[in-house]
Amino acid sequence: MISIPVALGARSYDVLIEDGALDNAADHLGPWLHGPAVVVTDEHVAARQLPRLAAALDIRPVILPAGEGTKSWAGLESLLDQLLALGLERGDHVIALGGGVIGDLVGFAASILKRGCNFIQIPTSLLAQVDSSVGGKTAINTVAGKNLVGSFHQPSFVLIDPTVLDTLPPRELRAGYAEVVKYGLIDDFPFFEWCEANAAALLAGDSTARAEAIGRSIAAKAAIVAADERETLDRRALLNLGHTFGHALEAETGFSDRLLHGEAVAAGIALAFAFSAERGLCAGQEAKRVAAHLAAAGLPTTLAAAGISANGAALVAHMAHDKKMSGGRLPFLLTRGIGRTYVDKTVDLADVAAFLDQA
Known about the structure:
Elements: E1 2-6, E2 13-17, H1 25-29, E3 37-42, H2 43-48, H3 50-56, E4 59-64, H4 73-85, E5 93-98, H5 100-112, E6 118-123, H6 126-132, E7 137-142, E8 145-152, E9 157-160, H7 170-187, H8 189-203, H9 207-227, H10 234-237, H11 243-252, H12 261-278, H13 284-296, H14 312-319, E10 332-335, E11 341-344, H15 349-358
Parallel strand pairs: 2-9, 3-4, 3-5, 5-6, 6-9
Antiparallel strand pairs: 1-2, 7-8, 10-11
């Protein structure tokens, strides 16, 4: 068992990582539950994991359609109506059992239901376990772009059971790995080296490698969030490595299963390194090393591999809707080398479009 604190003063909470935690949920969640627990999940997770949770807790499930399309205005409205029908009170806790879509949607719903109620994260995908379940960013997607409507709303507790990954489809496991290696690329070169040595074992289901990756990722994110909860400084922005490019790719594919979020992030990371190399910021060999590692993990590293045929102007048009846009400038996460990511606020989008046309 590993317990990692997220230190945010009155909003502090713990992230508990334990094999079999889902089966011991009553012991772990007892302090927050009073009566049957309202559990929101999707159809896929319900089939794989809900029986385990139901065996441990008295639950009232809300089962939503699976997929990015649920993280929408319609999905939010449906969820709020169902939570209200269940009589959820402001002091109650709603449980998000699922991946990033469910976590983001439930967190946002909790932040506005009766002007704010509580929620608990039980992430069931690698991506959610190492990234989206921690930090309090909640949102839905809109026609204009990804995560443009949302709020900061911290969970009361995060319960991570790595054994749920045993039933995760291989494609989703690989997609989640992009968010693991990201932490090494931001500011932890030794962790990137660890990833190079252990990615294959992690993706093959090795429990030791899996626990190490989740624990180190959560510890890194907890430290960043504690220092810059609402991304008012450049510190938390570092977690967006690969996301500015990646969100544009997701928008181009209609936020669909054609390109999973983690796959888009992987391609975005490779593009960020290649763009940095083109600008003379980092060595071309380092950019190639990162791309080679991501490709070896089964992730896309080029526009073609991501199934993108749009030109640079079209992709940059998606970026123009990014919520981080300020004064007509979009901050980019660029790098001076592996483990040396920084925020660059001087990038001209015309240069990005030209780069993408050649990528």
